Amino acid sequence: MALTIGVGISLHAIAASDDLMSNEPTRTITPAKSSDAAPTTEENSAQDDTRPQKSMLSADSSTPTLSDVAPVQIADAASDASGPVVSSDYQQPTFSTAYEELPRDQTVRERPRPEVDALGVHLGGFYAYPSVRTSEIYDDNIFVTPSDKRGDFITEIAPELSLESNWNNHALNFDAGAAAGYYASHTGEDYVDYHFGTDGRLDLTRDDQLSAAFTYRHAHEDRSSPDDVQGKTPTEYDLYHGEIGDQNRFGRFTLKLDSQLNRYKYFDDEAENGTTIDNNDRDRLSSLHSVTLSYEIVPDYDAYVRASYNRQDYDSQQDDQGFDRSSQGFETVVGLAIDLGGVTRADIFAGYLTQFYQDSEFDTVSGPSFGGSLVWNPTGLTTVTATVSRTLQETTQVGAAGYFSTDALVNIDHELLRNLLLNAFGGFINNNYEGISRNDDIWTGGVGAEYLMNHYASIDLKYRYDTRDSSESDENYERNLILLSLDLKL
């Protein structure tokens, strides 16, 4: 086994991005301030393309991340640790016309809106934020088939409760929620997803912070997943996620240590002919460990190098096709993060990865990896976000060790009124499978509008178009989705 090293540059983090089409958060650029450690990515060598979603299509229309273009889900953004601004006085929403008065170091989605932000419930040193979202969704191709498309209306109800600390030092947060989707005609596609978790930060010293998180999710695999087994009902699975990290700054250097564990447990499905589809061969423990060392060249310019190691340990020594998919691998990247007064923030990095597979039928997979993000506020009313990445992903495709996923996304948020936000996005993903000839090109695009009525309610309208052009013709599809939702909150 060999450790490979790569070189490149990297630019300062995307801030507060929102997964417009997500499952589990992977492949996203982690935001960071120039005063913190160098930004890191949630590293994703040999990660599964199945990421747990909070809901099928949520009302939050914040900046999407690229990694989740393929699934149908539109999921919630992670909220800022400081929590929303709390105000007890309602103010009539007004037009945003004074460009020069708006802060250029905040994105449209980051900006506090005291007149419409959720007030929350004050509980000692915490604020509780309960909410419930009701959505009506139309999907014109629910089985994502190349022909004989079937459409349906889906009603989704998604309650959520978050508890956020309001302390001067340290932080502790809790979150729990569910998303129940009911199809008007195809009731076999109904789903009930739920999750709960906690995360916290311990400020050991001014320059040393210890963080940890745990999340449990029960979710379903979207029909657009390349690993969908085409059962009578969507494949359900459990995910247990834990992570711990330490960030220590000394002088101009910052050292960051991260460890993550993911336990995947898949449920069996029933085939159309009544037989049982055994998904136990997909169960596994995935671990990722990384070390990041950054150096502040000058204020707001951080160079960094990151080395990571991952393991994929499958419960079954052989899957249903006779392959042992357990593997281990290394990735090393270097990068540069910059912040030009908040108007432009960017992070780009490049390196090399290698994955060694247990099965002798699979060749060692290696190649360049890279990623980048750019946040640009051309005016106080508009934010442009762009991301790009190349990663190695897990798959259960027969004969394939994994696949390289190269993706790019551009998102635009515009504040038309103080309480009316517009959004447009477009993205592309290429999935190139190792060991077989399959190659997929996925395109997505859409628009949306969010009306923030007051502290307690908002309305969201979205449209999205997806298409996949695959070398396997029976994997092609086109899909249109429309969402209208009402979000009630305290």
Describe the structure.
The chain is mainly β and 490 residues long. The protein has one domain: Porin. The chain has no helices and 22 strands. The strands form two sheets. It has an 18-stranded antiparallel barrel. It is globular. It starts with 46 loop residues before the first strand and ends with a strand. Mean pLDDT is 83; it is low at 1-100.
CATH architecture: Beta Barrel
Order of secondary-structure elements: EEEEEEEEEEEEEEEEEEEEEE
What's the main sheet like? 18 strands, antiparallel, barrel
Overall average residue pLDDT: 83
Number of domains: 1
* Continuous helix count: 0
Distance between the termini: 54 Å
